[in-house]
Amino acid sequence: MSAASYVMDHKFRKDYVQVQNFDTDLDVSHEIIIALKQLNMEKLEVIVDKVSDPTSEIYGQHLSREEVGELTFNSVALDVVIKYLQVNDILDYQQTLYGEYIKANAPRGKWEEIFNAKFMAYKHVSSGKIVFRSSSYVLHSSLIDHVTSVSNIVDLPYSEMSNLRHLPIQSDNKFSSQGSGSIVPSVLNSYYNIFSNKGNSLTSQTVYSTINQYFSSTDLATFQSTFGIPAHPVDKDVNHRDNPGQCSYHPSSCYESNLDLQYILAVAQNVPTSIT
Fold it and tell me: Residue 181: its pLDDT value, please?
């Protein structure tokens, strides 16, 4: 089996510019996130459809986090990736509870060596923050059947909230009706005549991911902080849709769920919220 190459054209990212003649210190530690292939994903999709179908005999009988983890746990993939890291003298790593991801730290030079990458400096236009990324990497043939993606090598970070201005908050915790030219919470309040965003904690609300969408809990927290919304993470994530790494690497796989969660928790605060 031949190796697999992954290439990203950073010219399409207008929020970052490459910094020419910038010294890339290859001895500095750099963190990557390896996403492992999970088992029984088609079976999970069938279960999701059934528990979400009011006519199904198992309607509402959601799997627990432990049940989902045990169903998708891929011990073979986990062993292969860990052994690959160890063989390459990378010992600073952590795995998630059910082996969905491995977070590993090593000098940039080591990642360049084992992924055939070349780190360069990129500056965020608004903040000036410097990050180091390659335009491509190569996944070793022994990893192809076990790894879905590797984050923080070619993918530039997204800072979508950085360009949104903070909106004034009224004393009764209602958003200002002033608009910003974008669909922000205050615009929703104004358009739909929402006079209060204080929800009822005795009820509940759910976002249904119909097209295999993920969401980012870190993006949600940033959104709430930016708009002065009381911090409220997702209460129930029965199908493990929280995947910041996936959202960073493939933003299109998170747009819908991210948006739905951000706005439902903005207009109906203090309401137990789940995603299926």
Answer: 54
* The pairing of beta strand 273-275 with beta strand 236-237: parallel
Contacts of 207 (CB under 8 A, 6+ apart): 257, 260, 261, 264, 273, 274, 275, 276
* 105-90-153-222 Cα dihedral, nearest 10 degrees: -30
User: How far is it, in rounded angstroms, from Cα 60 to Cα 29?
Assistant: 46
Instruction: Tell me how far the alpha carbon of residue 145 is from its chain's centroid.
Output: 22
Question: Could you tell me the pTM of the whole model?
Answer: 0.61
The continuous run of DSSP H or E covering 43 comes out as helix 41-51
In 3D space, the residue among 225, 209, 190 whose CA is nearest the CA of residue 258 turns out to be 209
Cβ atoms of residues 114 and 16 within 8 Å: no
Comparing CA positions, the residue from 8, 4, 273 lying closest to residue 136 is 8
Q: Give the span between the Cα atoms of 201 and 72, in whole angstroms.
A: 32
Higher pLDDT, 240 or 122: 122
Rounded CA Rg of the chain: 21
